[in-house]
Design goal:
506 residues; Monooxygenase; Leucine-rich repeat, LRR (right-handed beta-alpha superhelix); nine-stranded parallel beta sheet; two-stranded parallel sheet; 11 strands; 40% helix; F-box-like_dom_sf; F-box domain-containing protein
């Protein structure tokens, strides 16, 4: 009879496999207390992801994690936050207060989109009644008193004229109402954080610190750059405002006022905000030069009003290529293209401005081991504007990707010749193609479909909402002929549905 085995006698590889499937961090923490063997096996899974923004506190925390004997080996994912504290807001109280008003209205809109609000609006409209103020949760009739309190909070917070009055020249701080005092104190905190951010950026010290920290992560494989619309780092607490009589339920609506700004700014700051462009150009180049080569890289950013500062030098482009030299998955999403005070105005971007963005996208996708490519210019060329660039400007179509399997090019403009070059490079590798909202800037769609049929191993394709040539600016509705187009590209049908009978005859 074989001797009984203790669980600790299992090979370390088996224990690693077990802990890699445990998603609960608390369970992993408790497992470390079982024995030294369990501690050694579980420790690498305690912290797998970390994020950093340009503040002294965040950078210090990243350095602490990356210098840690255990955690430095367990971290596989790093998210670099591109959103930042706007110097223009920090140095102009009046501008800050105007922006606060916009942030509050935006916060209100986000809450309006919650399911409970939609449900109550639908019921009210069917009953022919006026839509009641928003209730944060769909509560029962027995909660009417609580609901009424929340409705009052809604009205007092989002339709309060007191905050914009702070921007007036004759405003007297000594007579500030409790609402105004909250806004004033938030402004002081925002200004302090911006000053801290600018101290950290002096001489590009934040670039040095991030590069040095990430160099200590031997298992880093996923690097993300994120520029979210609204990011809430902190919650305002009642203990911070003991003299105003506000509880957390009221103060939660003001959390958004302390949020960093995305690169596109807001309606108030869109034309004046200066994004931290070095976080893409210089940081990516320096990371590549430092020997950091993740396998998964993604960039999600909002398009600033002025794209020219994004332009990379030749040395920086070379550094980005080094960063991407081992990448199997590369993703860029650029959103929020409107840059005027009204949606639909000023959305056009000149060619030289767009080429500044291309100076980043081209070396970014110059990854010889790429298997997954996604370029999503979400919303680009809406409102009747015509693209000023094409796919050959955005992607390096000179050399093939031997392992490229999936290509997603949503909202990307292309010429028929660009598609022909892409198919010639990748006809025997690509199995999935998605070109939704794609704009054909030169050539005919029937010819473009014929070209795309040249992919030999394609088993999935999507060309939803095509634009350009016969489709004009696009209708944002599904065309029934698309199913036939997809079937033709996949070689399930033998006749190009976009060709006329005369063309077939010839």
């Amino acid at each position: 009879m074989a001797p009984k085995q203790n669980i600790e006698s299992l090979p370390m590889e088996v224990l690693h496999c077990v802990f890699s499937h445990v998603g609960d961090q608390e369970s992993i923490k408790q497992s470390r207390l079982v024995s030294r063997t369990f501690n050694d096996a579980a420790a690498p899974y305690l912290i797998e992801a970390a994020s950093v923004c340009v503040t002294s506190k965040s950078l210090a925390r990243l350095e602490e994690l990356c210098d840690h004997e255990v955690f430095s080996k367990s971290i596989t994912t790093i998210t670099i936050i591109l959103s930042h504290y706007d110097v223009g807001l920090a140095t102009d109280r009046s501008l800050f207060m105007h922006d606060c008003n916009g942030r509050l209205l935006r916060n209100m809109e986000m809450r309006e989109r919650m399911g409970a609000y939609k449900w109550r609006r639908m019921v009210a409209s069917k009953c022919g009644k006026k839509v009641p103020p928003f209730s944060f949760q769909d509560r029962s009739r027995e909660d009417a008193i609580q609901r009424e309190i929340e409705q009052q909070l809604w009205q007092r917070t989002y339709f309060n004229p007191e905050i914009p009055k702070i921007a007036e020249e004759d405003f007297n701080e000594g007579e500030a109402t409790p609402f105004q005092q909250v806004a004033l104190r938030v402004y002081v905190t925002y200004r302090e954080r911006c000053e801290d951010q600018e101290r950290v950026r002096q001489g590009n010290r934040h670039i040095d610190r991030i590069c040095s920290a990430l160099a200590n992560l031997p298992n880093l494989c996923n690097l993300r750059f994120d520029d979210p619309y609204l990011i809430i780092h902190d919650e305002l607490q009642a203990s911070d405002f003991p003299d105003l009589g506000f509880d957390r339920r009221m103060l939660e609506h003001f959390d958004c006022l302390l949020s960093p700004s995305s690169w596109c700014g807001s309606i108030t700051t869109n034309a004046t905000i200066v994004p931290l462009v070095e976080m893409l150009s210089e940081l990516c180049a320096r990371l590549g030069q430092s020997g950091i080569k993740p396998t998964v890289l993604s960039v999600q950013m909002t398009a600033p009003a002025h794209l020219r500062p994004l332009a990379l030098s030749a040395d920086q482009q070379a550094g980005v290529k080094l960063l991407m030299s081992r990448a199997a998955c590369a993703r860029i999403v650029v959103d929020a293209w409107d840059r005027a005070t009204t949606v639909g105005e000023g959305n056009g971007r000149s060619r030289d401005e767009m080429l500044a963005l291309c100076s980043f996208t081209k070396p970014f996708f110059a990854a010889p081991k790429l298997e997954y490519l996604r370029l999503d210019l979400r919303g680009y060329t809406d409102h009747g504007k015509t693209p000023t660039i094409d796919l050959s400007d955005l992607l390096p179509l000179e050399n093939p990707w031997p392992h490229l399997d999936t290509v997603i090019l949503d909202y990307s403009p292309a010429k028929t010749d660009d598609l022909r070059r892409l198919v010639a490079l990748q006809e025997n590798t690509v199995t999935e193609l998605q070109w939704d909202f794609g704009w054909l800037v030169r050539g005919r769609w029937d010819e473009a479909v014929e070209v795309l049929r040249g992919f030999q191993k394609l088993n999935k394709v999507s060309l939803a909402y095509p634009r350009g040539e016969r489709y004009g600016e696009g209708t944002y509705r599904t065309d029934n002929s698309l199913n036939e187009i997809h079937s033709y590209i996949l070689k399930q049908k033998g006749v190009n549905p976009l060709m006329t009978e005369v063309e077939h005859t010839n």
